[in-house]
Structure prediction request, 453 residues.
Amino acid sequence: MALLSKKDTKLITDPLLDNNPITIQVLGICSALAITAQLKASIVMALSVMAVLAIGNVVISLMRNIIPSKIRIIVQLVVVAALVIIVDQVLKAFSYELSKTLSVFVGLIITNCIIMGRFEAFALANGPWKSFLDGIGNAAGYGLILVIVGFFRELLGSGTLLGFKVLGDPIEKTGLYALGYENNGFMLLSPMALIVVGIIIWVQRSRNEALVEDN
Amino acid sequence: MEYIELFFKSIFIDNMVFATFLGMCSYLAVSKKVSTAVGLGAAVVFVMLITVPLNWLLDQYILQPGALKWLGAEYADYDLSFLSFILFIATIATMVQLVEIIVEKFSPSLYNSLGIFLPLIAVNCAILGGSLFMQSREIPTLGLATVYGVGSGIGWFLAILAIAAIREKIRYSNVPPALRGLGITFIITGLMAIGFMSFGGMLTGGDEEGAKEEKTVKVETPEAENVKELANNTKEIN
Prediction:
């Protein structure tokens, strides 16, 4: 490809699996767990993070030669905070209900470790185009885990996906519920998010032995 | 009474780690050893004690709709609440920096033990989360905001202390290879969070004040003992 060299493609695909920000780099877990009870909230959160991370990476990478290293954390925080305010205002304007569900977690994108982590590890040392791809890739890896967790929690917890009753109606006993299936309300509680992520890590590391760490 | 209630509520029921998952990144990264966990936990309590009341003042006198009234009647209908993220994070970053300088000057030994953790705290979501929850829950007075800050800090401290102690012990157990390290920590944290959910009834059970207090004490003891046990265990190892 002319637009994406082999190295560039790797920047996007690596964080999806073998260098996933959540399961391998252990970044950005805070927000990942709290809002995954519904698939829709997870998708919106993933998109918000992607916007902030991609744009922020480009901005930081453009400024990387003029930021004094002593105050770089404050500069980075200001850049992220400005971007997050924009995202927050857009969400409030176009889907107010959803922004209420996400409550403070949109604001917490500021301190989402993925963002600071990628700024420090990548954008400060690379050009804008590479940083942009790195931002997209890492946010996609983050979003992937969010969507997987959100999918299972919403499906098993409330029997719906994006609000559609895919398993039938629990009150009128149609679909699976006619066979005696019950929703597992436990999946909606926050501790299950941790356990689901734990299981994802388990599956991922069993498939790729190189990722196994010491006890 | 409401001070005590809020204090215990923010430690146990609304525990930063187990109920809202804030500060998970540093919680997972720094919980390999009890001694470092204690250092980071203490720094978090300290910074929250300062930043939450400070941000409460900012929220009350600058950010809320109509908060600028003290400047004159013509400012009364200004609403600056969209600026809260940037002001809160700026406060936190400056306070962390300031605390670092002050601690270095007056207590070098404390500075050496906290050293590396202080700058890390600026990006700990628990701190910003504390301020944002303080704002969204509309905590009414400065005193309560302080209590809320300290309580949440202690809750976080407790959580990281407990998981660090468990992780030190788990080194001797036979965990499936793929779960080692991160995976098992996630699952243990999940189980601990389920345990902490049982504190949910702590402040709602019983109608009378007396009954409420009794219940509070009863529910607390097993946990306190548990933590003490954990602490003792770790002392032995050290």
